Description:
By secondary structure, chain A is mainly α.
Amino acid sequence: xxxxxxxxxxxxxxxxxxxxxxxxxxxxxxxxxxxxxxxxxxxxxxxxxxxxxxxxxxxxxxxxxxxxxxxxxxxxxxxxxxxxxxxxxxxxxxxxxxxxxxxxxxxxxxxxxxxxxxxxxxxxxxxxxxxxxxxxxxxxxxxxxxxxxxxxxxxxxxxxxxxxxxxxxxxxxxxxxxxxxxxxxxxxxxxxxxxxxxxxxxxxxxxxxxxxxxxxxxxxxxxxxxxxxxxxxxxxxxxxxxxxxxxxxxxxxxxxxxxxxxxxxxxxxxxxxxxxxxxxxxxxxxxxxxxxxxxxxxxxxxxxxxxxxxxxxxxxxxxxxxxxxxxxxxxxxxxxxxxxxxxxxxxxxxxxxxxxxxxxxxxxxxxxxxxxxxxxxxxxxxxxxxxxxxxxxxxxxxxxxxxxxxxxxxxxxxxxxxxxxxxxxxxxxxxxxxxxxxxxxxxxxxxxxxxxxxxxxxxxxxxxxxxxxxxxxxxxxxxxxxxxxxxxxxxxxxxxxxxxxxxxxxxxxxxxxxxxxxxxxxxxxxxxxxxxxxxxxxxxxxxxxxxxx
Amino acid sequence: xxxxxxxxxxxxxxxxxxxxxxxxxxxxxxxxxxxxxxxxxxxxxxxxxxxxxxxxxxxxxxxxxxxxxxxxxxxxxxxxxxxxxxxxxxxxxxxxxxxxxxxxxxxxxxxxxxxxxxxxxxxxxxxxxxxxxxxxxxxxxxxxxxxxxxxxxxxxxxxxxxxxxxxxxxxxxxxxxxxxxxxxxxxxxxxxxxxxxxxxxxxxxxxxxxxxxxxxxxxxxxxxxxxxxxxxxxxxxxxxxxxxxxxxxxxxxxxxxxxxxxxxxxxxxxxxxxxxxxxxxxxxxxxxxxxxxxxxxxxxxxxxxxxxxxxxxxxxxxxxxxxxxxxxxxxxxxxxxxxxxxxxxxxxxxxxxxxxxxxxxxxxxxxxxxxxxxxxxxxxxxxxxxxxxxxxxxxxxxxxxxxxxxxxxxxxxxxxxxxxxxxxxxxxxxxxxxxxxxxxxxxxxxxxxxxxxxxxxxxxxxxxxxxxxxxxxxxxxxxxxxxxxxxxxxxxxxxxxxxxxxxxxxxxxxxxxxxxxxxxxxxxxxxxxxxxxxxxxxxxxxxxxxxxxxxxxxxxxxxxxxxxxxxxxxxxxxxxxxxxxxxxxxxxxxxxxxxxxxxxxxxxxxxxxxxxxxxxxxxxxxxxxxxxxxxxxxxxxxxxxxxxxxxxxxxxxx
Lengths: 549, 654
């Protein structure tokens, strides 16, 4: 930075401060997020003031009400036309209220609600000392295997903090795809990430593994956040603003008033390219794209299964929403620079996820790699850079998230003495012993594989069609090949469940409460409805396919 | 009046449905349902015929549009029927002869417990055959074409408990498949060439030529050759002739109706109907005449060597259809005569088969003519009707065959040039051979010693060659007797047709005038006068009969076939057609499939399994990168970010 620039900074600072307008906040339009965050705060208060034995019920009640109310608010906003004609940017340019944002928020809220059901499930683990317990540690602060842990278990403690944590995470996720400036984006990223790190550490069984997963997730997440923040800084340096609209204008070269303090760096394409790449990298980390996917299998395996399901579904929705907005609103002028790079990322993500999944022996790791491959498929739709691309991605995410939560919910049911029996060899012959559960899981696997009449097929078809129309035919070919590879390991699990002899000491299938049944039922229902009659939802996603700028 | 066309087809179809679905309740009276519905169809045909006769020659075409079958934008197929002089001729032949044979079958199949099913199949055949000749487009014709193929398959294999019958049915089906492929390719070619496959637009009329006029000759030749292939399959012409002899495994009424009088002539119908296409493709026409000439000699030679009466007649059928195909290949000179010979042949060949059936009926189902002899005393009606059929087929002056065959020979000469001489010569030679083998059949069956008395235990000379000849191995001596009236009456009616049909058609050119509006006619320029040709034909006839008499009438016929010359032995083996097919097609096919299987195992499976193994190995290697250390994950992320940045910058640089 030259001396004149420094000097001008000084002089700017020395000028008398002009009057700052009070921020104008459209509370009604932000109500979904506000309701969820507010409920999370109420949850914290409940932890502080409500007696321990009532906390679970109070927390579940507050969370369910909050999520339902927030979803109702989203629907009301959409019905009011905020998704289409009245779409605009609220909260002083920080948050967009438009079709993609509302669609994704609705999806996240529903996924969160279904995830909440699996969080609240208390019938799967055997009753410990007269108390029903859930999937989470009795007392997170106690050292695994220590006396204090035993005491906590004996006392029947449960970590009801998971509910406010979940709500905070959902709150962050609601802002993430709607954020319209880089700082809000970053804050939302942290708001959604930090509760997730914690939740990952809270498994009731295999606590060391769970904590290891949480630490890995945290370290790598922090590492990725640093890249993101650096990217934001560079972009600010380039554009002199963190606002999406302003950056887009600078990229397009339609800006006339140049901030004298930034005259040297502004319009420097190196800053733009490096900053954009780093920012995109932070989001690719969240969606789990190769080569930023390494955390996924470890974290998915170690985290409590309900958390894994929620994370795999909702985080992906939020992160893809943010990525879409970034690429379509901020960097469309840079399309020719990022498209080839994203092509490469999508290809190695699809192939990498599918190929490595072949040799997995743990069902949760298998699903983790499957989610990586799916991230690749969705990226193919993102790259289309068309309205169809946006709506196909929205549709894919909606279908995928419920299948994912449902599939992980089924994983929680298959148990042996050590808790969930996640090793694939234990799933052998499950179809003979519990045909219904195995059949439901088979439906989910077929949806993952993209077999017709499931949501997976409709979504994959929409995404690939958009990509092909956008001129990415080679990408589609790689996508189809990866789907074929992926089909191998999905079908292999089905074969294992139905055509292998059950083992004598195999796992049992627990009978869950209506909560988990609801989560699984929701997964099956969306899989079939979106698979057999996708048109209505495709239209809905199509209407929601335009970003406000 | 055109509304009667659909019921014409519907009647036997209804019969088939009722008889095949009706179950055992209909076992007792079912056959009469079949007979009555067949006669209903015939009666409707007569009504329509009367109607057509009442109209002027130029207005004798009725069409009935039933419904739109495949209404796709550029691909329109309707279920529409067209009744003109040509299809009317066929309708009368099919329903007339068909009804007589239904009646005959009542007696012939009296003791068969699956008689109801037999009549169901016969009715199904009638419906399909009527659909074939009444269709207004090639696609609908194809439905009928496949329908008769199915009925033929079912009826050849009717006595499915006999492995030979089951095999023969399969053989007929497979060989016909080759021909059917030709027809379907022809239809596809028509669609791509003309954009239509309906008779009206494609073939046009005499006044306004159809789309055929616009197509290139190469295209038309291709279509015509494919149609010829189809005709070869259905009409048992060289090179797809091999199934007809084995088809005689079916009950004799089936042989008479399907494999002599009607279905096997469908190929001739196809060629004559598609005359506009063939007229515009002279090369294809030449191929048709060659096929016809070769087959007429081929069939005749085979017919000379067979001792099985039905197989001898089958060879004769092949030969006679060869005449028709030859005539059809001559173009407008021959179309009318092809159809005329087809009709007269329908009479006398059906009569001959029914006679053969009657003989078998009286002889414990013996088919070997060497175990017949002197039967004229025992079966007078059969003898007389068979004899009249015999005289008709060899072309005895005044009888049907004389008129129709003579016209074909004349037409062949009228083709002109060297071709004319060759084709005419072949036709003449064929006439001589026909006289020979038919006289042989006649003499061996009805004259000479009664070789069936104390018949020796059968020791067939070449058991592997003529499995059918072994079936008559009963040790009980047969008691030849005349067949019941229900069988003899159809024979008598057909004999009347055999005697007078030709004269009726020819005097005053009735048949020519009737068909000419559809097929067109041309006199050609014969190098010889009609009288000379007729004289030559008569000489051939006499020579053929004389040789046969010298060989089989003057000398006693040995009960066991002598070894015979090389040609005789080859002819007994159907001129080695099966051996040829076996060596060339079966062996060749086996080698081809074997090498393909090898290719599949080594190359395709290798690639597939190799790919799978490759991905598995890759997967195993890649998963090792996932070592569980956060530090290496971070390194990978850092490397990824570096690459991402570098690639983005690189994209700008290029």
